[in-house]
UniProtKB/TrEMBL annotation:
It comes from the Eukaryota. Belongs to the proteasome subunit S10 family. Residues 192-360 form the PCI domain. SUPFAM superfamilies: Winged helix' DNA-binding domain. Residues 69-100 form a coiled coil. The lineage of its organism: Eukaryota, Viridiplantae, Streptophyta, Embryophyta, Tracheophyta. Keywords: Coiled coil, Proteasome. GO terms for cellular component: proteasome complex. Acts as a regulatory subunit of the 26S proteasome which is involved in the ATP-dependent degradation of ubiquitinated proteins. This is 26S proteasome regulatory subunit RPN7.
Length: 388
């Protein structure tokens, strides 16, 4: 497992994690799963991931081969014996840096064979032998990659907090920028799309985190999170006109049309592009749990943007703008209005939508009056206590 992305390659275990996710996905056809199963078996076998192999065999994902499992465990035991000998030799005959390197090698081996708890324990031992802040940060990145493989959000959250504390002691900008991408991915995977968009946008020009995903995938995530998080002005400045995004967005099918048709109010084109993106989003390991939520949020954004221009509009006109039927618009908007997502009402008889946007200034005034009344009541109660 590589802590950095200098070689521009995605971390192999995260590739494996994605293939395991696709194997369990109902939308992936059986023929594709045959190839995926072969890839998973090859990866597990080449890295001697005995614990994972045993788990997958028990779940029926891979066929059980007792002889292969025994071979894996024998190789693991032999390699650990060699690593322990190197650690002992370094402690007796070499300096502190060599001792640290020997412990790090053992940590990386446990990560490679998929021994999560042993890897985390050994990383703590290695940290105890580490002085430089940069090297400590690299250990945190290894821990974050373990967390992402197992989707252990508690481990990821604690590791991000630990990394931020380390940066207070020092640390270089390259590692700080990499941490933003890790944190952005964590936020996206835990449905905090607004913070994820902010962190991704901050990292566009400094992206080096190739161990997590390609730059194309990074732009894909950035656009998806930005669309439901930014207002039109910010979206134009930070995403639509961003040269880094413009250079890549055309490589991702439907993404350019999705972004530009939304900004340019070409709603029929937007819906076509949007439908083309549903499958890729559904097959994304970090986005799939939030698929339905994301679909709703995007539709809320686009419907709100359309209605923003009107005091009232016929449902027929809106249906024509989106390239759908009046019944579809009726059903869609009814759900969003009932959920408080859209501020309008439907006049079914006249076939008209009437917007009733909340007056932000008036709402702020009412809230201020309410808070003032509350404060006065508290002061009066306090004055009575003091008088007594």
């Amino acid at each position: 497992m590589n802590g950095g992305g200098e070689d521009g390659k995605q971390q192999p275990h995260l590739v494996l994690a994605h293939k395991l996710f696709l194997l369990s996905h109902s939308d992936v056809d059986d023929l594709a799963k045959v190839d995926l199963r072969a890839d998973v078996f090859a990866a597990v076998k080449s890295d001697d991931m005995a614990a994972l192999y045993e788990s997958l065999a028990a779940d029926g994902v891979l066929e059980t081969d007792a002889a292969l499992l025994a071979e894996m465990r024998a190789r693991i035991d032999e390699e650990i014996r060699k690593l322990d000998e190197k650690i002992a030799d370094a402690e007796e005959n070499l300096g502190e840096s060599e001792v640290r390197e020997a412990h790090l090698a053992k940590s990386l081996y446990f990560i490679r064979v998929g021994e999560k708890e042993k890897a985390l324990e050994q990383l703590k031992v290695t940290e105890g032998k580490t002085v430089a802040v940069g090297q400590k940060m690299d250990l945190v990145f290894y821990t974050l990659q373990i967390g992402l493989f197992y989707m252990d959000f508690d481990l990821i959250s604690k590791s991000i907090d630990k990394a931020k504390n380390l940066f207070e002691e020092g640390g270089d900008w390259e590692r700080k920028n990499r941490l933003k991408v890790y944190e952005g991915l964590y936020c996206m995977a835990t449905r905090n799309f607004k913070k994820a968009a902010s962190l991704f946008l901050d990292s566009i020009s400094t992206f080096t985190t190739y161990e997590l995903f390609t730059y194309d995938t990074f732009i894909f995530y950035t656009v998806l999170t930005s669309v439901i998080s930014l207002d039109r002005v910010s979206l134009k400045q930070k995403v639509v006109d961003a040269p880094e995004i413009l250079a890549v967005i055309g490589k991702v099918p439907h993404l350019s049309e999705f972004l530009n048709s939304l900004y340019n109010c070409q709603y029929k084109s937007f819906f076509i592009a949007f439908s083309g993106l549903t499958e890729p989003i559904k097959l994304e390991r970090y986005l799939q749990p939030h698929f339905r939520y994301y679909m709703r949020e995007v539709r809320t954004v686009v419907y709100s943007q359309f209605l923003e221009s009107y005091k009232s509009v016929t449902m027929e006109a809106m249906a024509a703008a989106f390239g759908v039927t009046v019944d579809f618009i009726d059903q869609e908007l009814s759900r969003f209005i009932a959920a408080g997502k859209l501020h309008c009402k439907i006049d079914k008889v006249a076939g008209v939508l009437e917007t009733n946007r909340p007056d932000a200034r008036n709402a702020f005034y009412q809230a201020t009056i309410k808070q003032g009344d509350f404060l006065l009541n508290r002061i009066q109660k306090l004055s009575r206590v003091i008088d007594l």
